[in-house]
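Reviewer has doubts. Consider these tokens.
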Amino acid sequence: MGECIAKSLEENVNYLNERLKTDKNFDILYHSFKMGDKQGCYYFIDGFCKDEIMQKLSEFFMKMKDEETPGNAYECIKKSLPYPEVSKGRKWDEIIIQILSGVIVLFLDGQEECVYIDARTYPARNVEQPDKEKTLRGSRDGFVETVVCNTALIRRRIRDNRLIMEMTRAGNVSQTDIAVCYMEDRVNRKFLNEVMEKIQSIQAEAMTVNQESLAECLYQRKWYDPFPKFRYTERPDTAAAQLLEGNIVIFTDNSPFAMILPTGLFDIMEEVDDYYFPPITGTYLRISRMLISIASYLITPLFLLLMMYPEWIPESFSFIQVKEEIHLPLIWQFLVLELAIDGLKLAAVNSPNMLTTPLSVLAALILGEFSVKSGWFNAEVMLYMAFVAVATYTQTSYEYGYAVKFLRMISLILTSVFGITGFAAGLILYLFAMVLNRTVSGEYYLSPLIPFHGKELYRRIVRTQDKN
């Protein structure tokens, strides 16, 4: 067999049965029928097409009369079939991908073209509010693992002909569907072309971990750069707002997350609740989030520095000094608790729901009260690390939380070893890591602060009232 199908139905069926191994794959099915005076056969994947649909199609084909099946079977089926998504194909590689994607592929004897009938229904869970991005107001829907459902949720919010959704594939083996969404009149065309070229040139075998595989193919980050270059969201309203800002939103099949790019620090600091409340409340929430992020980085290295130089503590703040005897050096207490907090997170993620609450109470008792009483940790250290742990959840981006965590640990170590010089070095490292960083589009990570754009920076910090 060549690259394209033959006129003989028997040859095509034998070739496909060999390529698809229908004798071994129980879920790859084919059914022979007679459509008028022509012998036909169609292939489909069990589970992607409902039984009722297949029954209706079989009845439709078998009821067609000889005079209703002219030489061009594709045109006949397209005019008569009650399914709008009908197309044709000739090349075997594309035909096999379509079958494995769930499309019904129809072959007729004497025809050098097959017919694609897109009547698939992917298994999907209910559209419900995501656990990580809950909101007090606003919609309660969220993305699911099916691309078509996710793009429909965007279309529902942006009913504009300038919204473009291009479908492509990546992964030589997985052939993962990827939808690239953008506003035609607002997107950066140069950056869009770069993204599309990179997606089309991906040579990976499979998109094993969905968007992370795609992200690594789109942007070759330095291994020591922990700051997130992409923003992920499960909320359709957030993705729609980013599209209207001129950003690109990418969906991959089997993932309930939308990938937003380019992404800078001020994009990460924004949350949907900022816009569901009045401007003054939204501004307060946004500024609070920024201040808490800075405090989560500074509080433990600064406390360690003051404990090393207690004479710098004003008399009115003398209560912050450690009262009990220090058995384990403070630097080791902080580092052990940084690791312990991650251990608790992993335990919470992997614990069954029915055991999460009892384990949380047990961990709080053992690691909290008894660890202080036993002398392993001081109460002040536990207090500041508790603040850091809670402050991490004020950001929706896990990646940004860990970026701050890594820089905080480096600052703790430098402060412990070099004192005030180490603290200053850690602070300079933090600032340089932010200032010199770039987004995937080449812009500064701190834009519009660097380079400075007053009006845009004001809009990013202050939640202004929408006048449109």
Observations:
- The radius of gyration is 29 Å.
- The first helix runs from residue 9 to 20.
- The chain has a mean pLDDT of 86.
